[in-house]
Design brief:
Pfam families: Hexapep. By secondary structure, the protein is α/β, with parallel strands linked by helices. It has helices spanning about 5-30, 230-255; strands at about 35, 45, 50, 60, 65, 70-75, 80, 95, 100-105, 110, 115, 120-125, 130, 130-135, 150, 155, 160, 165, 170-175, 180, 185, 190, 195, 200-205, 210-215. About 25% of the residues are buried.
Length: about 260
């Protein structure tokens, strides 16, 4: 019995889809930037294991951008040093990113003056960090034409910056701080705090004497035991994948 045209078209569509996905995966691998394969980007420093995913966002002022070891820079992340490309910004770096930093997809780090991000910071997607803000002192001049204000920004090590957060000029964020999604941070944030809101305020903090105040509402997660081997973790992952496949097969059988 001849196969229907729809079956042939469906098979061809699947083959084309697979080819497109395979081609895009190749483009992503080839377009990624590392210290060994920087492409057109020549950073002042780029540590071992650091990777900028493709496609990259706007990047300029690379000689004044220092990236630490084992950083993950997501797709469409903007990294800039200076107000515009091709400026001479002096001998010292303007944007410093520590070791093990993760910048989520679509985030922006705008360093017109010094911005420092400590090691082991994790940014969700679409975080915006800037050392520059518009001024509006003169009511007769369009705001975009007035000279901006610049203040250094410092984010301490070990912080988690939630999706869509905004870090404004002059912010000084301490160590191991949680910035809630959508928060707008200015001024000084102490170590071991949780901040939320616009403008952000401290909603929880930790001290050696009192622990977390207000107390945490959920129990601490159970860490992976020290005696678990990588092979055992892989076996668990495969078991989870097989269980998921079995569940999908059961659901399909009942459709």
């Amino acid at each position: 019995m001849p196969k229907s045209r729809n079956t042939f078209s469906s098979r061809r569509s699947r083959l084309v889809q697979r080819a497109v996905h395979a081609g895009w995966a190749w483009v992503q691998r080839t377009g990624a930037v590392t210290a060994e394969r920087p492409g057109r980007l020549r950073f002042g420093a780029m540590g071992a294991g650091t990777r900028l995913a493709f496609p990259q966002g706007t990047v300029f002022g690379e000689p004044w951008i220092h990236l630490g070891d084992h950083c993950i820079i997501g797709e469409q992340v903007t990294l800039t040093a200076g107000l515009m490309p091709d400026l001479d910004l002096g001998a010292e770096p303007i944007l410093r990113v520590g070791n093990g930093v993760v910048l989520g997809r679509g985030s922006h780090v705008i360093a017109d003056t010094t911005v420092t991000i400590g090691s082991d910071c994790y940014f969700g997607p679409y975080v915006y960090v800037t050392s520059t803000n518009h001024s509006y002192d003169d009511p007769q001049v369009p705001i975009g034409k007035q000279w901006p204000r610049m203040e250094p920004v410092e984010i301490g090590p070990g912080c988690w910056i939630g999706t869509g957060a905004v870090i404004l000029p002059g912010a000084r964020i301490g160590r191991n701080v949680v910035v809630a999604a959508g928060a707008v941070v200015r001024g000084v944030v102490p170590d071991h705090a949780v901040v939320a809101g616009a403008p952000a305020r401290v909603v929880r903090s930790w001290t050696p004497a009192e622990g977390w105040q207000p107390p945490l509402r959920t129990p601490a997660p159970t860490p992976i035991p020290d005696d678990i081997t990588p092979e055992q973790l892989l076996a668990l992952a495969e078991l989870d994948a097989k269980s998921l496949e079995a569940l999908r097969a059961t659901e399909n059988a009942h459709e």
